[in-house]
Each structure stands twice: as structure tokens, then as C-alpha cells.
Design goal:
79% helix, single chain, elongated, mainly alpha, 86 residues
Length: 86
């Protein structure tokens, strides 16, 4: 769970910087990441992870949905990778 917590922390930092441009979508991602962070609290090993597996899985699904919504908003403004290879 430590790597996941680090990823959540990085994600929340990204959300803070993205809020000014992508307001509601960035905020939704931040809320979902906060939910994942809360779901992960108290997990110290595989045994405690098993107890919270459904909660963590739901939180991950919410993060994925919020990320997809933000990605859909951002993607049209970004060039396709093959377009930049000259």
C-alpha cells in the first residue's frame, strides 16, 4: 500500500495544479483520490487488505472513472504521439 499511497499523494498534487484549468473534472479526480486514500488507511498487510478489498476496489474504480473524464477533456488539446515524430 505504500506505493499506492505515494501515487495518491502525487495525484493529489497534480489535481491542485490542474484545478485552475480543468476545474470540475480535476476536483472530481481529487475527490476520488481522497476516497482511495481513506480506503487505504489502516491497511498494514495482506490480512487487513483482504478486509477492505471491496472498499479499495470501489475507490480505484472511482479514480479510474474520474481520470478518464479528465483525460477526455485534456486529450483533444494534446498532439498524438505519432504527429510529433517528424
Amino acid at each position: 500500500p505504500e506505493q499506492i499511497q505515494a501515487a495518491v499523494t502525487s495525484g493529489l498534487a497534480f489535481v491542485e495544479s490542474a484545478k485552475a484549468v480543468f476545474g470540475p473534472e480535476a476536483q472530481a479526480l481529487g475527490t476520488a483520490l481522497g476516497g482511495l486514500q481513506a480506503a487505504l488507511q489502516g491497511i498494514s498487510g495482506d490480512g487487513s487488505l483482504g478486509d477492505k478489498a471491496a472498499t479499495v476496489e470501489n475507490a480505484i474504480d472511482e479514480v479510474a472513472a474520474a481520470f478518464d473524464a479528465l483525460k477526455a477533456l485534456v486529450a483533444p488539446g494534446c498532439p498524438a504521439p505519432e504527429a510529433s515524430g517528424g
